[in-house]
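Trying the structure run again after the queue cleared.
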Amino acid sequence: MKKIFLSFALLASPIFLLAQKHDFTLIFGYAGGIYSPDDDAFGINVMTFGEGSVRLTDNQVINMGFNDTDVSMSDADGNLIFYYNGVYIENADFEKMEGGDTLNVWSPIGSDIPQGAVCIPFPEKPQKYILIHESEEYIVSPMWSFQGIGLYYSIIDMNENGGLGRVVERKKLLISDTLTYGQLTAVRHANGRDWWVLVGESHTDRFYTLLIDVDGIHLHSIQNTGIQRQEGFGHAYFSQDGNKYVSSQGIDFGPNWGYLYSYDFDRCSGALSNGKEIHITGSVGSGVAISSNSRFLYAPTEEYLYQFDLQATDVAGSRIKVGTYNGHLDPFPTKFDRSYLAPDGKIYVVTSSGSRTLHVVNKPNELGIACDFQQPGTKLPCNNARSFPNFPNYRLGPLDGSPCDTLGLDNLPVAFWRSERDTLEPLHVTFHDLSYYEPTIWLWNFGDGTVGTSERHPEHTFPGPGEYEVCLTASNANATHTLCRTLTFTTSSIENPDITNQISVGPNPFGNYLTVALSIQLRSPVFRLYDQTGRLVRARSLAYGLTELETVDLPVGLYFWEVRSGSEVVKVGKMVKVE
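Done. C-alpha cells:
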C-alpha cells in the first residue's frame, strides 16, 4: 500500500540568488582513518572550481567514507558547508552536524545506493536546504535488481550553531513503496524558483512527481509513461536545459545487459512524454551524463564509452563509440563506471575499482571523437571507486515566456569562464565560456589593446610577457554582467614558475619507486628518465596529480630526467638511485 506524507513551511520574501555555486566544492573517496591512517593514498579528494578550472587537493582530516551515495553541498558562493554519505551529515568543521546522525543504516564506508540522495536549496528560505534521501533498506527481486522501500526528507538550517548548521527536521517519510533503487535527481521548475523531483516506482512505468516550493515538498502527481522499465543499478539525470530526463539501468553481472530510458520533460507541468528504451549489450556502467549544450548523452560500459545524440530522430541509431578501455592500471583496472558533468563543462568518468584515476571528456559538446575523451585524464590525490557527488543544475533559470513564468523572475546572465594555456606557445590561450542564465551575446576584452571578439569560446595570442586583465561580458535582453581576471605571462614555459613550480620528481635519492607530481594541466605530458650514458630507461605518460614509477630493476647511480609537454621540454633535473 502506498503512503504519501506531506510537509509544509512558512512563507518568506522572494529571493533570487545569482551565484548558485552549490556544486563548486566536491568531496569523494575513501576516508584515511577507516582504511589506513598511515597511508596518504587513503583520504578524501577535494575538487573545486572556483575560477572555472578544476583544482584537486586532498583532505586527511575527514573520517567519513563515501560509497555510492554522495552529496557535497556548498553555499551560493561555492564554499563547502556540509556533506552526506547516505548515513550521516558532517559540517564544514568536519564534525557530525547536530541532528544529522543515523539518517540511515550504519556503515563505515557510506551507503551503496547509487544517487541515494539529492539536496536542494529551500525556495525563498536563505540558508535552508532540503535533503531528499532513500532508505538503505531494500529488497532484491529479481536477482541483481535492487528496489528501495522508503523515501525521506530532512531539512538543514545553516543559520543554526554559528553557521555550522543543524538538522531541524530529520528523516520525515515521504513515500512508502517499492521504488527505483536510488536515481534521485531534480530540475528547476519553469517558474525559476521551485523544483521538480522524480522518483520511479520499481519495475513499472510509473513515476512519483514531487514539487518543492515555498510550502515545502509534496506530491504533485503519479504519472504513467507507457514504458515498463527494466531495473538494476543506474543513475538518472536531467539535461542542463531541463527538457530531457534520462536514466540508465545495469541489470546483472553475467553477460550484462543494459538499458537507457529517455523522455521529454515539461518544466511547467512536471510531465514526462515521448519515452524511448535503448538497449546496450556489454558490461554496463551505472552512470550517464549529458553535455552542457543538452545534446549529447554519454553512457559508459566497463569497456566502452558511447555517445548518443538526444536531438536525433533515432536516438538509439545515433550511437557512436568515443572511447575504448586501454588497459590502464592504477593499480587496478581503471574500467569505466559512472560519468558526471562538472561545472567546468567537462565530463568526468569514474572508475569501477579503487584507483587515483578519473577519465575526462574534454569537449562533450562536440560530435563523435571530437569530444576528446582522455584516459587517464586526471590523477586524483587519493583513491576512489565509484563515488562522486550527485547534484542537479543549480544554475537553470526560469523558462522565459512560458505559461508558468508567473513570478516575475528573469534570466539575468552571470559571466563565468576558464582558460587553458598552450604549453608549446605560452602566450597562446584558449578561453571557454561557462556563463549561465541564458546569455545570448558574448564580448571578450583581452586587455592588450587588440580588438575584442564576440566568439563564445575564442583563442588569443598575447603580444608578450606581462599582466593582462581579461574580461568577459555576457548579455541577453534582460541584463549584462562582466567578469574580469588578470593573467600573468613570462617569456616561456621553461622559465615560467607557474609551470615549473607545479612539477616535482622525487624522492631524491630514490630507491624502488619514484613519483612525478603534476599539478598543472599540460598537453600530452611525458616523463623520461635517462642513465649516465644518455640511454632512455623509463618513459611514462603523465596524468594530472601523482604518477608512480617502479625502479627496482635500475642499478644505483646518477640519472637525468625531463618532463615534456608535446615536443617541448618544460622541466629537467637529476637524481641518484640508491639501494
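The chain has three domains: 3-8+19-384, 417-489, 504-577. Worth checking whether this holds up in the mutant runs.
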